[in-house]
Amino acid sequence: MITIPDLHAAKAQGRPLAMLTAYDATFARLFDEAGVDMMLVGDSLGNVIQGHDATLPVTLEDILYHTRAVVRATKNAHIVADMPFLSYGADEAEAVRNAGRLMKEGGAHAVKLEGAGELLGAIRRMVGIGIPVMGHLGLTPQSVHALGGYKVQGRGEAGDRLLEDALALEGAGVYALVLEMVPATLAARVSQALRVPVIGIGAGAHTDGQVLVCYDMLGLNRGFQPRFLKRFETLGERVEEAVRAYIAEVRARSFPGVEHSFGDR
User: Fold this and answer.
1) Residues near 88 by Cβ (< 8 Å), separated by ≥ 6?
2) CB atoms within 10 A of CB 5
3) Would you tell me how many other CB atoms lie within 10 Å of the CB of residue 123?
4) In which domain, by residue range, is 156 found?
């Protein structure tokens, strides 16, 4: 199993880390066998699994359910569970309890939460009782309305403030940080300034690793094409072709044929 010391060693050695989201046992098993370093049970499931246009409706119970499925199918990868909107931030004790549930009931190896500032106290409490925390700065989807939409963050003076927040998160004890949709030069500055691994998404190539939503990377979410996304497959088209072929054979009564049917004996 890949541990937090393994992730820190990868940064020290200059070996980039590969991370994908995962939401079910089938994909988790495939990703794990392929050798991915980390899997994130992301609140992005609100978009790609549940059909919402934002992550805000996702509940703690949703994340718990999907985390259990991913954990059952994984042998090696480091598994991080997202803390959904309003599961932290309002009350430190509640935040710690919810993070603990994701590990105790869900089986996650760590939790991820968005932001810094007022959250630093809760992060210190989590880390202090043995709950590893991954930070998340830049575009933080749970704050999409406050940010005015899905826009690049950290330009100009805002980049200096983001770097300060990143250093504060490291000081509070996070073991890694996700940077989303920030200029590549800023992401490189943050990666160089922090001792812990920095994982980018839409943050250029000079971070310590990359993360993508698996449905986007595989081309299953065909209507989503941000600039930073590379589709490594076009499974959406291939799935549709397979389904059309299945429908055609069913309607032609050519499936199931003799080779797919049970005989009388």
Assistant:
1) 94, 95, 98, 99, 113, 119, 122
2) 9
3) 27
4) 4-234
